[in-house]
Q: What sequence folds into this?
């Protein structure tokens, strides 16, 4: 905590704002790794919400696609790739499991006809 206070004191001394000085938490959305953003962009594209280029950057088109998706899913509309939106888009599942593998069970790429 002493280090944080020193950093805040230095920020204030240089004319910068320290989020701890006001007691208010930082309001910026958390930074996301490009691979998570790319997977979210792919998921948005697959769901019909055009995020623009699949480049791993959260630009205006991705924010608009996120807001549209959040609204359709009755989530809090922020236009940010927050934790709830990331979970709903199934980003972790899509990123860490290859296609056809879910929960350790191999899924067949074709559907069985009933």
A:
């Amino acid at each position: 905590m002493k280090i944080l206070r020193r950093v805040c004191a230095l920020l204030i001394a240089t004319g910068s704002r320290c989020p701890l000085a006001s007691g208010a938490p930082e309001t910026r959305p958390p930074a996301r790794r490009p691979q998570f953003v790319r997977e979210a962009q792919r998921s948005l594209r697959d769901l019909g919400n055009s995020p623009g280029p699949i480049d791993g950057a959260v630009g205006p088109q991705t924010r608009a696609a996120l807001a549209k998706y959040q609204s359709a899913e009755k989530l809090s509309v922020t236009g940010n790739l927050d934790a709830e939106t990331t979970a709903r888009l199934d980003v972790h599942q899509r990123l860490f499991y290859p296609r056809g593998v879910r929960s350790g069970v191999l899924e067949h790429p074709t559907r069985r006809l009933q």
